[in-house]
Automatic annotation (TrEMBL):
<dbReference type="InterPro" id="IPR018060">
    <property type="entry name" value="HTH_AraC"/>
</dbReference>
<feature type="domain" description="HTH araC/xylS-type">
    <location>
        <begin position="248"/>
        <end position="346"/>
    </location>
</feature>
<dbReference type="InterPro" id="IPR032687">
    <property type="entry name" value="AraC-type_N"/>
</dbReference>
<dbReference type="GO" id="GO:0000976">
    <property type="term" value="F:transcription cis-regulatory region binding"/>
</dbReference>
<keyword id="KW-0804">Transcription</keyword>
<dbReference type="InterPro" id="IPR009057">
    <property type="entry name" value="Homeodomain-like_sf"/>
</dbReference>
<dbReference type="GO" id="GO:0003700">
    <property type="term" value="F:DNA-binding transcription factor activity"/>
</dbReference>
<dbReference type="Pfam" id="PF12625">
    <property type="entry name" value="Arabinose_bd"/>
</dbReference>
<keyword id="KW-0238">DNA-binding</keyword>
<protein>
    <recommendedName>
        <fullName>HTH araC/xylS-type domain-containing protein</fullName>
    </recommendedName>
</protein>
<dbReference type="Pfam" id="PF12833">
    <property type="entry name" value="HTH_18"/>
</dbReference>
<dbReference type="GO" id="GO:0005829">
    <property type="term" value="C:cytosol"/>
</dbReference>
<keyword id="KW-0805">Transcription regulation</keyword>
């Protein structure tokens, strides 16, 4: 019985998305330079010094997200992901950077990023949409989107910065959408991502300027790109698909629907490409119900939002899909045994 349970745990672990860990190592270096003890932060988030010090070891995406959050808190830097993306050497992206840089045009580079980003990070899926104003959407796979803030902000700004460097043009995206809420630090983001920046959006997305897909890249090299594409294809084929649990997919579908009052089983089922009946049945197979996931997600988000003293309780109520603050207060007592104000004061 114990061996069967162990095998099952190992199999589940092998399905979890991994990352190359370069972002964690950037954050770890920042922690060390700040004189903050690194090992306790790593231990608390499921990582070790050996994993950080070995650039060839992949780590779990969920551990990277947890570590970035812990590092941001320890450094008192709520903009950690953004500041890391602003200063790191783009070449540290490795193979992904070079296959993008050697592409003929920006549109081709974004296509390459969309196809091969999983080599670097299996949890963030890039979807490129061609058009006069090309779009790059970032979708989380295998891990809950609502658990992350620093990694996604790093990814979005790094992609914009890389596009500027590779094209040799200083430009601002036409629009940038980020699905989590950020009441502080928005002005700094807008200065580098443009005035079309929206937090609390329905999706994580970058809309590039009109005609930008045709911009020729400064280091375009057709022969080198052909070689690198072959290497990328080989690397991609060696990575197994990791879709994660249905629960995570449901949570990621629910999150952007909450403020609009559309977080309902039939709406979520449609977004996931199945009938409501199929969704209910498949959740039951995992020992879950839709309402259970919904309530637990709301409770988790409520606790996170209440950590920000500058966010009004009425806004938190709206973000969670409550029409009245009083309804949110009742729900908060049901989840935690405390009202929102009591929970905020108890931290």
């Amino acid at each position: 019985m114990q061996q069967s349970s162990t095998r099952r745990s190992i199999k589940q672990l092998s399905r979890l998305p991994t990352v190359q860990g370069g972002l964690s190592r950037l954050a770890a270096d920042r922690v060390r330079r700040a004189g903050v003890k690194l090992e306790p932060l790593l231990s608390r988030t499921g990582l070790t010094i050996d994993q950080i010090d070995d650039p060839d070891r992949r780590i779990l995406a969920s551990n990277q997200i947890a570590f970035l959050g812990a590092a941001a808190e320890a450094l008192n830097d709520n903009l950690l992901g953004f500041s890391l993306a602003e200063k790191f050497d783009l070449r540290d992206l490795g193979l992904l950077y070079y296959v993008m840089a050697s592409s003929e045009t920006l549109g081709e580079a974004l296509k390459r990023a969309s196809r091969y980003s999983r080599i670097t990070n299996e949890a963030v899926v890039l979807q490129y949409q061609e058009g006069r104003e090309p779009t790059l959407r970032l979708i989380y796979s295998g891990i809950p989107r609502h658990a992350d803030q620093q990694q996604i902000e790093f990814c979005i700004f790094a992609l914009v910065r890389a596009s500027c460097v590779l094209s040799g043009r200083r430009f601002l995206p036409k629009r940038v959408s980020i699905s989590h809420v950020r009441p502080r630090g928005v002005a700094k983001f807008a200065g580098l991502l443009g005035n079309g920046l929206e937090f609390g959006a329905n999706a994580d997305e970058i809309n590039f300027p009109a005609g930008s897909a045709g911009w020729v890249l400064v280091d375009a090299d057709a022969r080198l790109n052909k070689i690198l594409v072959k290497v990328c294809e080989e690397s991609l084929s060696s990575r197994k698909g990791k879709s994660g649990s249905l629960r995570v997919a449901v949570e990621n579908a629910i999150s952007p629907l909450l403020p609009h009052g559309q977080a309902k089983a039939n709406v979520v089922a449609k977004k996931l490409g199945m009938s409501e009946r199929t969704l209910v049945r498949r959740l039951a197979e995992e020992g879950l119900t839709f309402n259970e996931i919904l309530q637990q997600l709301k409770a988790s988000l409520a606790i996170r939002y209440l950590e920000d003293d500058n966010m009004p309780i009425s806004r938190i109520a709206w973000l969670l899909g409550f029409e009245e603050a009083s309804s949110f207060s009742h729900a908060c007592r049901r989840w935690t045994g405390k009202s929102p104000r009591e929970l905020r004061l108890s931290r």
